[in-house]
What does this fold into?
Amino acid sequence: MGCEHVKSLKQVEPRTTGCEECLRIGQRWVSLRLCQSCGHVGCCDSSPGRHATAHFHQTRHPVMRAFGEGDWGWCYVDERTLAADELPPPPSASPQEGVYSPSS
Ligand SMILES: [Zn+2]
Ligand SMILES: [Zn+2]
Ligand SMILES: [Zn+2]
It folds into this structure.
């Protein structure tokens, strides 16, 4: 069974080039996720803030996409990984350098 949510989504540009919440509070992140509904950028579940998941819980926007490393998506509702060719075209903007890296 495929994801129905992704079919109604269009290309979005990120509202920020780093995690919106982390930038506001000066926190660091590991990698970024772009909301395919509104362009919100949040941090992944390996980051202290987990703001991408928090954004889903706040807004119910179902589909996010990796912003930075690789091109793939995730539907929170179906709990399913989405391949790049199932997603709308990628954004033209590039993310900020990951501020947090475990080795530094
Ligand atoms: Zn879905
Ligand atoms: Zn964050
Ligand atoms: Zn959103």
Notes: Residues 10-86 form a domain with the Herpes Virus-1 fold (CATH 3.30.40.10). The chain has a mean pLDDT of 92. The pocket of zinc ion (ligand 3) is lined by residues 35, 37-38, 40, 55, 59, 61 (CB under 6 Å).
